[in-house]
Every structure is written in C-alpha cells, then in structure tokens.
Amino acid sequence: MAEVTDRGLTFSEASDGKVKAGQEPLSIFDRPRVHRWWRLEMPDFFREFPDEWLPISRDVTEVGVVADTGC
C-alpha cells in the first residue's frame, strides 16, 4: 500500500497503471496485486459486515461506483 500512497495515487489509478510525472510505474507484479486487492478482495471483505455497520449502500458494484437503483 505504501507503494501507492507514497506516489500520491488512488488504488484505482495504480491498478490502471497511471503514474505521475517523474515517477516509475509499479512493477509488473505490484500492479495486478493492487488490482486484485482493491477491486476483488476489498469489496468481498466489506460484504461480510452487516449492512447497518456500513455507511454505504449494498448497491455498490465496484469500489466507488454505486449502481443505479432507480431512486
């Protein structure tokens, strides 16, 4: 995680391969590792909590993206 935060990137940016000027890209091993952790493991982790423990809707389809519920 420090590899991402020290660069001033979000985890989505890091997993998508974004770099800021003057920075080296993440290694070929770190980029898929960040992708897996952020987009697969974190949502699975939060699904295990009861709804009333979380401040967000269960209609989240991807980290940071809320599904259209028609409301």
Topology (elements, then pairings):
Layout: H1 2-5, H2 11-15, H3 30-47, E1 60-62, E2 65-66
Antiparallel strand pairs: 1-2
Explain what this protein looks like in three dimensions.
There is one protein chain. With 71 residues, this protein is mostly helical. It has one domain. Helix content is 38%, strand content 7%. The protein has helices at residues 2-5, 11-15, 30-47, and strands spanning 60-62, 65-66. It has a two-stranded antiparallel ribbon. A hairpin with a 2-residue loop joins β1 and β2. The longest helix is centred in the middle third of the chain and has 18 residues, at 30-47. The relative contact order is 0.13.
Helix content: 25-40%
Element pattern in H and E: HHHEE
Shape: elongated
Low-pLDDT segments: none
In the residues, how many domains can be counted?
1
Supply the number of helical segments: 3
Mean pLDDT: 82
* Strand arrangement in the largest pleated sheet: 1-2
Query: Count of DSSP E strands?
Result: 2
Largest sheet: 2 strands, antiparallel
Return the structural class.
Answer: mainly alpha
Q: How much is the radius of gyration in Å?
A: 15 Å
Bin the strand percentage: 5-15%
Gap from first CA to last CA: 35 Å
